[in-house]
Amino acid sequence: MSKLILDACCGGRMCWFDKSNPAALFVDIRRAPKGHIDIRPNHDVSPDEVVDFRSMPYSDKSFKLVLFDPPHMAVRNGRTGYMAKKYGSLDKETWRDDIAAGFSECWRVLDDFGTLIFKWSSSEIPLKDVLGCFSQRPLFGHTTNRKETTHWLCFMKGI
After folding, report:
1. Long-range CB pairs of 32-39, under 8 A, 24+ apart, other chains included
2. Could you give the residue ranges of the DSSP H alpha helices within the chain?
3. Is 0.85 surpassed by the pTM of this model?
């Protein structure tokens, strides 16, 4: 594989400074054209490849860096609301299995001593519940403050 970085749930590539970074492979389970959200007419979901993060077609140890920023909503968020259209949605019955499978796949395609960055918003599902789905523990992370719900965690394979 010629790409060093995998964004396993790229969505609208909102966390990227360079949304066309040539070192990154952007994948998502869906495509959505500009205009699919009325109040965000320029938002689109345009992955390089349509891939389900629970079962990725890449060889073991294919990437040096993996970003795993899955949908964070499952309980209140329907499949057709604004948040689901913008960020995607987890199934409220299977989210634990889905997140566990996604992390396992991201870990599988991560090279030895590679880095996995995990982003999570605990607005509906607490971070501690999500971490219980993982086979690994983060090295370190960041929560912006008590009022914010966004968490960034760093894992390194082989440590």
Report:
1. 32/85, 36/85, 37/82, 37/85, 37/86, 39/82
2. 82-87, 95-109, 127-131
3. yes
